Amino acid sequence: MSVEFFLRLVGMGVLGFGGLQLGLQLATLVGEPASEIWALLTALVGALTGLVLTPYVTTRPVRLVKDYLAELPAQQLVSGVVGLIIGLIVAALVSLPMSLLPTPYNAILPVIAAVVFGYFGTAILSMRRRDVFDMIRSLFPGSDGTLDDGGLTASRQVLLDTSVIIDGRVSDISQTGFIMGPMIVPRFVLNELQHIADSNDMLRRQRGRRGLDILRKLQQDSLVPVRITDMDVEGYHSVDEKLIMLAKRLRCAIVTNDFNLNRIAELQGVLVLNINDLANAVKTVYLPGEEMSVHVIQEGREQGQGVAYLDDGTMVVIEQGRDFIDQDLSVKVTKVLQTAAGRMIFSKPRHIE
After folding, report:
1. Measured distance CA(247)–CA(242) in Å, rounded
2. What pTM, to 2 d.p., does this model score?
């Protein structure tokens, strides 16, 4: 039996009994001999009223308040509670001299003072919550990701953007220990992922669902905490702008593989950890003259060329390698070229000097 149904039965019984008593009183006042009929009618009306209206004065308001508190940002909720406490303390101090006033002012004015000061304490601290939290952070430098003199994050917490979650490699990186602080996912990034997952375009929908799966995997398997935060940045609409401003406020780094976000964040002095840069940095280094074994899979752009790929995705262009397609071949490195798209290796078959 649900709570709402139980409360409906209780309301029906209470108002039905109240209607019964009301009917008997009305029959007595008007001198109606058939008082049982009056009592039965009013009891039925009371029971019906209780059955229908009870949820609207019990469970429905509680559910609305619960949903509102669930969507309320944590900073605003804490600020409101602290402001209410401060307002009530001030009201209690003011009520002491008010209690010495003559009746009925000594009873009415303290109640009014509690309501007024409680309201203003809650409203003022909620409106200025960001300034209050920034002031608290300034008293404890380095406790929540503030920058040290060298420009590095002290707590090492990082913000994750939408593209790096969808990419998925951050899940593997998080299990290696290279990310040493909490990974923060703002609510607006989660909302963007949800929006992509609900897209009518099949490709975008698959990317969004992959991002949600990766985020769930991060929460389960990551060596460091993965937290969803309700912190938002007012006055900005795009997710990239909000990420940059939030990173400035928290003084932490952004983990991304978005080239545009990377450049804009660097211009504004925000530290960026780019997954693509990390992938390029850890690729195996081959020098001219070294030998390797590759599997030729296709022909290249130039006549006679063959193309192979290493395990990390590096393209190997093989001079005179066209005749060895679908074969394993030992090659000697002739040149290594670093491009914006990654590293390319030029080589030739080892038996050709």
Report:
1. 8
2. 0.47
